Input
Amino acid sequence: MLPEPGEVLHFSEDPTITRFAPHVAATAQQPEAYVWAVDAARAPDYWFPRQCPRGLAWAGPGTTPADRDRIIGAGCGDRVHVIEYGWLEAMRTVRLYAYRFPAAVFAPFPGPDPHAHVATEPVTPLGPAEPVGDLFACHAAAGIQLRVLPNLWPWWDMVVASTVEFSGIRLRNALPRP
Output
């Protein structure tokens, strides 16, 4: 599930939203109210149940071959997404939906590494919510390795100390550090 050219996406488990109003998320690190969306490059970051903790890592221009092999895996593509075993059933059964928005109403999130797009005015989707479908199939079709670990933290500590590019989402929901 990726946006078409000129679109951005918002993923939700609620298929009934008809208008998105800017809000300050409970975990926000900025005071501004936004409607959040992602482009094609970051859409795979959200092919998960909303509350699922996940670590995402990919090879970038500064990634060393040794870090690529150690973090992503030799011969395993350019990207890996990691979850904990406790989230497997939710990954299998969640009903996730994508809302399409016109990209022109959004701007890249301010900062050195814009990871999302934001709107400061209410936004109406271009159409009804679309089922994303099988999240494992989405990963497979995109060539993204999906790895399952007993605990995210040992792997995550290697990631943040490496040269791979990465993002962690909902890590506060991960199991405690071993």
Summary: The chain has a mean pLDDT of 93. The chain has one domain: 7-173.
